[in-house]
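Quick one, tokens below:
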């Protein structure tokens, strides 16, 4: 089985062709096996020991289905799955079933398919909250395609708006024996991570890698190879992971985005300093991959 990054994996059959099929969706809503994922603010509900995602059935909902703005996620474990938003200004609901937690924490404790489902639900709920109005004419926009898009209500506009995804590169740069890591001032003391940044208009991913590394560290990069990707719904990033070969090694913090950047050997990284990125992140996977391919054992 493929070793997915946390939050990734094709665990939900998204059934995109059914999103505008009202008859099919009505049947899915009335399916006794349908499940519902509440998102309270930006947190998801978990319960049990060990912790599992709480998938509500229709009887457990504290409102009638007709009163909820449901978002169809797809089929999860052969069950129609829907997400819905809950007002974070109210007390957390469903306390008898579990507790709401931040997705970063849930990524460390949930099974891979449940982490993927929670990330999917959270991303769409937060996107809807940020797209109440049409960006073209300023009119209201209503949910469409069972919550997978929004449509401007202005008949003269009628623009369909799709969920936002922000591509960002993240790269492990190596000179063969060392890798390049940097840290931001706001991070915990001693923590370093791989170089990352958003892709800009008119850029290829490889161009973005080379630009970001040079802008932040003054290091030039030659060969760039794709590694893997990770959805990162905080709120809407897609992390595109690469490994790259450095063609220069002198570090200058050009844009002052980083507080520090250094070259580290595999021995240093195994020693406990610097502190490495959290295990749920693609950054940590890139670092671990680089350590492993150079380990004679």
């Amino acid at each position: 089985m493929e070793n997915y990054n946390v939050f990734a994996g094709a665990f939900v059959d998204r059934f995109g062709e059914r999103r505008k099929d009202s008859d099919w969706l009505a049947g899915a809503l009335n399916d006794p096996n349908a499940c519902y994922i509440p998102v309270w603010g930006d947190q998801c509900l978990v319960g049990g020991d060990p912790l599992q995602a709480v998938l509500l059935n229709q009887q457990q909902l504290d409102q009638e289905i007709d009163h909820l703005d449901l978002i169809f996620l797809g089929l999860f474990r052969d069950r129609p799955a829907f997400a819905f938003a809950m007002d974070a200004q109210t007390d957390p609901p469903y306390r008898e079933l579990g507790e709401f937690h931040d997705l970063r924490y849930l990524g460390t404790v949930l099974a891979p398919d449940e982490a993927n489902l929670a990330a999917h639900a959270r991303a769409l709920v937060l996107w809807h909250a940020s797209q109440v109005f049409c960006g073209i004419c300023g009119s209201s926009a209503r949910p469409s395609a069972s919550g997978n898009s929004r449509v401007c209500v202005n008949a003269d506009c009628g623009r369909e708006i799709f969920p936002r995804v922000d591509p960002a590169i993240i790269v492990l740069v190596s000179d063969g024996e060392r890798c390049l890591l940097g840290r931001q001032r706001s991070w915990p003391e001693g923590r370093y991570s791989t170089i990352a940044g958003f892709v800009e208009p008119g850029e290829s991913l490889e161009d973005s890698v080379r630009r970001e590394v040079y802008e932040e560290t003054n290091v030039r990069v030659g060969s760039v190879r794709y590694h893997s990707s990770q959805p990162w719904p905080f709120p809407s990033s897609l992390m595109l992971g690469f490994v790259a070969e450095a063609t220069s090694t002198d570090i200058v913090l050009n844009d002052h985005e980083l507080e520090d950047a250094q070259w580290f050997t595999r021995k240093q990284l195994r020693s406990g300093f610097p502190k490495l990125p959290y295990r749920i992140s693609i950054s940590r996977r890139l670092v671990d991959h680089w350590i492993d391919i150079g380990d004679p054992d």
